[in-house]
Structure to design on (383 residues):
């Protein structure tokens, strides 16, 4: 969709009555919490059967415009998330002056091609970069990392060439938004594990044939939650707000077991799954921060060269750090990350230090909207 179309739609907005809209999943609470902290009303788009988190437990209570509890001012409930993107719902959003903050669930439940071509609501962030998150698609984030000269795990094209520990990345057969990842250190182990996962319905043959196999980086995981401001003029445009890491089931359950107990697991238990079920906060040793910023600088530059206008707002570089303290980027989120809820209200350690107040990714996004309004630069942060 031509950016001018979005700008034209924005012309009809009552800028004194903007609302922040979010699909009610993933990191929606962080985005909503940040929005109310910066004085905006929120609208969450929910799916029937999983709406009560938002409609009941985090529903807002206001004394006039003063927020007293919660962060969900308004909500709309659909039978299916796909209804959010219908023409009628888009018209409602445009009449409600909604600025939409995308998360991973948005692009998982709604076709990314449709988002690019038909979703006429102003998106705070980089609409065209959302498609880069789809592994195997032309010009995906691996392509972008290569163009940027950024480090990422070496790809193994043929399973028969596996001669060291690798991770096989593919979708879960039954939980379509989750992972069917597994590790192997040889072709024999690959055949044995894939066979068992196929047997138990965790993966399917079609996904296995198109899976990405890459070197497994042995080291801790750090999701680097960055922010890029195209409207900043005095200070650095790139900000490191915080770092998070994941809890994965059933992997984390496996590593809590003593080796002797792991050996006794039955066939259906012994191969761990990598389904993300939570996050925690972390910091980096300060000597690594310079290298982390260098990663972000290269990524931002590459997006500006190959995905104009480039990254806008929140993005996350998901990394492992090896024994030599070198970063390896194994995933990229060109929007608000999945682990930022761990920082909502309390803020990110680095974001708080930078802004001298509690600053989560959600609040930083809302602050960017407020600053853009004040500077008459709203068009520069929406696509």
């Amino acid at each position: 969709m031509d950016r001018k179309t979005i700008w034209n739609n924005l012309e009809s907005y009552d800028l004194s009555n903007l609302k922040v809209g979010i699909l009610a999943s993933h990191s929606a609470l962080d985005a909503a919490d940040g929005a109310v902290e910066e004085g905006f009303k929120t609208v969450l788009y929910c799916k029937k059967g999983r709406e009560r988190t938002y409609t009941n437990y985090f529903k807002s209570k206001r004394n006039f415009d003063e927020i007293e509890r919660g962060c969900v001012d308004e909500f709309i409930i659909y039978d299916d998330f796909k209804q959010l993107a219908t023409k009628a719902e888009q018209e409602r959003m445009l009449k409600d002056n909604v600025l939409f903050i995308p998360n991973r669930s948005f692009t998982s439940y709604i076709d990314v091609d449709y988002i690019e071509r038909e979703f006429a609501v102003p998106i705070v962030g980089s609409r065209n970069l959302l498609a880069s998150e789809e592994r195997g698609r032309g010009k995906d984030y691996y392509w972008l990392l290569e163009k940027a000269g950024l480090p990422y795990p070496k790809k193994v094209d043929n399973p028969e060439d596996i001669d060291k520990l690798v991770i096989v990345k593919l979708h879960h057969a039954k939980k379509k938004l989750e992972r069917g990842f597994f590790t192997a250190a040889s072709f024999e182990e690959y055949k044995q594990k894939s066979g068992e996962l196929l047997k138990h319905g965790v993966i399917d043959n079609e996904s296995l044939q198109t899976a990405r196999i890459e070197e497994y980086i042995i080291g801790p995981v750090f999701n680097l939650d960055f922010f890029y401001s195209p409207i900043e003029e005095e200070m650095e445009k790139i900000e490191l707000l915080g770092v998070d890491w994941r809890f994965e089931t059933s992997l984390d359950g496996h590593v809590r077991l003593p080796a002797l107990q792991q050996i006794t697991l039955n066939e259906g238990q012994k191969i761990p799954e990598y389904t993300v079920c939570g996050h925690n906060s972390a910091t980096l040793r300060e000597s690594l921060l310079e290298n982390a910023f260098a990663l972000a600088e290269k990524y931002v530059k590459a997006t500006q060269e190959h995905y104009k206008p480039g990254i806008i707002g929140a993005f996350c570089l998901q990394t492992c750090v090896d024994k030599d303290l070198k970063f390896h980027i194994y995933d990229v989120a060109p929007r608000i990350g999945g682990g930022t809820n761990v920082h909502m209200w309390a803020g990110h350690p680095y974001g708080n230090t930078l802004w001298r107040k509690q600053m989560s990714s959600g609040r930083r996004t809302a602050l960017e909207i407020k600053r853009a309004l004040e500077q008459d630069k709203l068009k520069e942060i929406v696509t």
Notes: The radius of gyration is 21 Å.
